[in-house]
Amino acid sequence: MKKRLYFLFYMIIALNIITACGTNISSGGNKDSNAVKIGVSSTDGPVWDLLKEKAKAEGIDIEIVEIVDWQLPNDALVNGEIDMNAFQHLAFLSQYNVQRGANLVPIGSTFIGPKALFSEKYDKISEIPNGASVAISNDPANMGLDLKLLESAGLIELKDGVGIFGTPEDITKNPKQLKMNEMDAQQTPRTLQDVALAAIYISIAGRAGIDMENILYENDPLSMDGLPYANVFAVRSEDTENKTYKKIASLIQDPEIKQAYSDDTGGLGEIIDVPLDDLQKTLDRLTGQKK
């Protein structure tokens, strides 16, 4: 009888432990938890500290996780290692979703800024010599943007209707026989001394200490239909109605944060407020182009 009571006693304790563990796991995945991890590609600049401060006033604890490799913030989001990320534009997000079979979606817009052709060797586009090397991104979304930039600058021509995911194979005219050196978009600033031109996001160039006087040509991302190069907060599709995440997405529109970002980029970048429906429509359209 005593042995049976001991057995029942230990069984009750075991069940309580299992129940408690189950409760902890559930609360760890609570969709409206006020502790939020956001993956970013750089913690430079004042924006993320300001966002954390504004969120803290709303009872939200943000942890900013810096992930330098541009593929990894999406992998981390899919795997549940972080709750949101903020490092990519819609074109890049659509590319990732198609390549990985993922379903990450925007929950709010963040930054937009121009990409430019920089040179430390030449002062004008017309001075670029025959056979010169040009540093461009190696991922399809940013590579397509770089080629469009070169086309707009009058250096190459692309096939009609190539869209925003062009590749060097889509070049139909290259009168200067420029050589395309493909590399990770974040590495292009490091090659500036070795190439005639490099296509670099102005925000990245600023963080790398590149003189803005070296800009030979830049695009206007706000002029493009659907704003495919609008950067976004991305979340897993099941978290689109998460109140905490939505609140964070709205907080980045705070006037103080917007001004701080503008000041940090010398007025060349801005935080934009794009309706969520428009962001999703653009993502769906771009995803259709990639499939």
From TrEMBL:
The keyword Lipoprotein applies. Residues 1-22 form the signal peptide. InterPro entries: Lipoprotein_NlpA (IPR004872). The keyword rRNA-binding does not apply. SUPFAM superfamilies: Periplasmic binding protein-like II. Transmembrane segments: none annotated. It is found in: Membrane. Keywords: Lipoprotein, Membrane, Palmitate, Signal. Belongs to the NlpA lipoprotein family. PANTHER family: D-METHIONINE-BINDING LIPOPROTEIN METQ, LIPOPROTEIN. This is MetQ/NlpA family ABC transporter substrate-binding protein.
